[in-house]
């Protein structure tokens, strides 16, 4: 199959180069071209859920190639323009076999009569134009190369047409002015080549040089067989009308096979696949195309499928101890967002992040919200203070973030040094640093009990004593 047909079926070679294009046959002017050793197709090495593995497999394949394109060297899948690069390598290799002087020391064909003689006109600088085609095909940037083998076909056909017209001095009407190359024995002269007006190529300046020989003819024949699998098209087809552009269909949500079929029905080809995260499309399905759906391209143009690898995941950064604004910035840099904020009482200063959901180190879909737990700056008065020793209760209040103070109250029913009351009360919530008062008991004698039958007429010896004195 020829490269034009190969691309029309959605297949890329991926390994095109001098070693995979073979010119065979007994007639050097009509070589038989065989293209061999096709590489894997983009879908064959695609792992939608593991882009790194996909790149590694392509990188391993690329290392086995003799003439990889620049994009393949970057572990990318081959595209149609990768094959264009390979064709440029083939053309460059063929041009290296063309001698700069007439073959076998024969006389200049332009000095003899007949098809190649002086009556045939001035010969076009075929090798120079072929070098220009090869240079464009081997551009580092794929966008700067010919976008399809149809373009290459037209470029080669123009060379053939111009070459044929150079040898038809009897063609009527319009003319091209061709300055000849001056040499040691002649002056710079100008000759005219007549062109048929119905298919006149664009005016070009061409210089007279010696016939490149039979090897160049074989090169041209081999190139056109490689590109279109046929003989040169007649000059009468030069003025044909280009095919109208086609619109890229929407293939988002389709699997690769279905998307490829839709593109083929629209007159386009799949130029490769590229994995990208997408939260809206399930992993393994086509998320978009490059160019985008709705764009217009020439028929047989290549379109890259962008296959979803699922939602992009971000890692929750360390947030504990940060302020709310600092935590929000850290989440944004990780591709996440700050969600709901829940406040918690404790000994931490107000506004300090105490934790998050998901927690530090966990993975979450890109753009998803991470809930924050933040210190409120308040604390509850500890329970269980009443009944403790005053010093122990004061230590508990200090640990809880409060400022304790102790006052004594006379009690005869409680041992001295015991907390009998707390103000504010236990369990109540207050800002950190609030003063909490502990009431500590001190011993007081109990009041005398009344005598049955009425008060005594004689006072008790200790009734006048004040136990506080």
Topology at a glance:
Elements: H1 3-8, E1 21-24, E2 32-35, H2 51-62, H3 70-73, H4 80-95, H5 126-137, H6 149-166, E3 175-179, E4 190-194, H7 214-228, E5 246-247, H8 256-265, E6 269-276, E7 286-290, E8 296-297, E9 302-308, E10 313-315, H9 324-333, E11 337-344, E12 353-357, E13 363-365, E14 369-375, E15 378-380, H10 390-399, E16 403-411, E17 419-423, E18 429-431, E19 435-443
Parallel strand pairs: 6-9, 11-14, 16-19
Antiparallel strand pairs: 1-2, 3-4, 5-8, 7-9, 10-13, 12-14, 15-18, 17-19
Helix pairs in contact: 4-5, 5-6, 6-7
What does this protein look like?
This protein is α+β, with helices and mostly antiparallel strands. Helix content is 24%, strand content 21%. It has helices at residues 3-8, 51-62, 70-73, 80-95, 126-137, 149-166, 214-228, 256-265, 324-333, 390-399, and strands spanning 21-24, 32-35, 175-179, 190-194, 246-247, 269-276, 286-290, 296-297, 302-308, 313-315, 337-344, 353-357, 363-365, 369-375, 378-380, 403-411, 419-423, 429-431, 435-443. A three-stranded mixed beta sheet has the order 6-9-7. Helix 4 runs antiparallel to helix 5, helix 5 (126-137) runs antiparallel to helix 6 (149-166) and helix 6 packs antiparallel against helix 7.
């Amino acid at each position: 199959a020829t490269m034009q047909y190969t691309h029309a079926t959605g297949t890329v070679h991926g390994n095109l180069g001098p070693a995979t294009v073979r010119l065979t046959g007994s007639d050097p002017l009509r070589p038989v071209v065989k293209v061999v050793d096709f590489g894997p197709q983009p879908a064959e090495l695609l792992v939608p859920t593991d882009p790194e593995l996909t790149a590694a497999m392509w990188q391993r394949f690329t290392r086995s190639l003799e003439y990889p394109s620049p994009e393949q060297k970057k572990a990318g899948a081959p595209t149609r323009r990768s094959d264009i690069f390979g064709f440029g390598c083939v053309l460059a290799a063929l041009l290296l076999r063309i001698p700069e002087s007439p073959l076998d020391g024969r006389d200049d064909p332009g000095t003899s009569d007949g098809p190649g003689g002086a009556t045939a006109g001035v010969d076009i600088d075929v090798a120079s134009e072929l070098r220009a085609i090869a240079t464009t095909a081997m551009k580092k940037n794929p966008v700067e190369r010919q976008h399809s083998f149809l373009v290459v076909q037209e470029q080669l056909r123009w060379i053939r047409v111009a070459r044929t017209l150079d040898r038809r001095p009897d063609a009527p009407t319009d003319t091209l002015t061709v300055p000849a190359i001056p040499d040691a024995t002649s002056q710079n002269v100008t000759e005219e080549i007549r062109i048929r007006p119905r298919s006149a190529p664009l005016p070009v300046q061409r210089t007279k040089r010696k016939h490149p020989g039979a090897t160049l003819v074989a090169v041209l024949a081999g190139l056109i067989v490689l590109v279109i699998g046929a003989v040169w098209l007649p000059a009468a087809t030069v003025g044909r009308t280009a095919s109208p552009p086609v619109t890229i269909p929407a293939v988002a949500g389709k699997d690769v096979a279905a998307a490829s079929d839709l593109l083929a029905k629209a007159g386009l080809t799949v130029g490769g696949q590229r994995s990208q995260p997408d939260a809206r499309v399930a992993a393994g399905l086509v998320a978009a195309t490059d160019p985008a759906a709705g764009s217009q391209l020439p028929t047989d143009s290549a379109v890259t499928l962008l296959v979803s690898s699922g939602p992009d995941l971000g890692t929750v950064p360390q947030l504990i101890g940060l302020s709310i604004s600092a935590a929000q910035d850290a989440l944004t840099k990780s591709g996440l967002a700050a969600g709901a904020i829940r406040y918690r009482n404790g000994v931490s200063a107000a506004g300090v992040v105490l934790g998050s959901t998901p927690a530090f180190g966990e993975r979450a879909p890109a753009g998803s919200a991470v809930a924050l737990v933040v210190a409120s700056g308040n604390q509850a008065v500890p329970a269980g203070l009443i009944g403790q020793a005053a010093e122990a209760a004061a230590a508990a209040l200090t640990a809880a973030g409060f400022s304790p103070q102790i006052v004594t109250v006379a009690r005869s029913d409680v041992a001295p040094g015991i907390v009998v009351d707390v103000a504010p009360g236990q369990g109540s919530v207050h800002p950190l640093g609030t003063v909490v008062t502990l009431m500590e008991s001190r011993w007081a004698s109990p009041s005398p009990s009344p005598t049955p039958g009425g008060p005594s007429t004689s006072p008790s010896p200790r009734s006048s004593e004040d136990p506080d004195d």
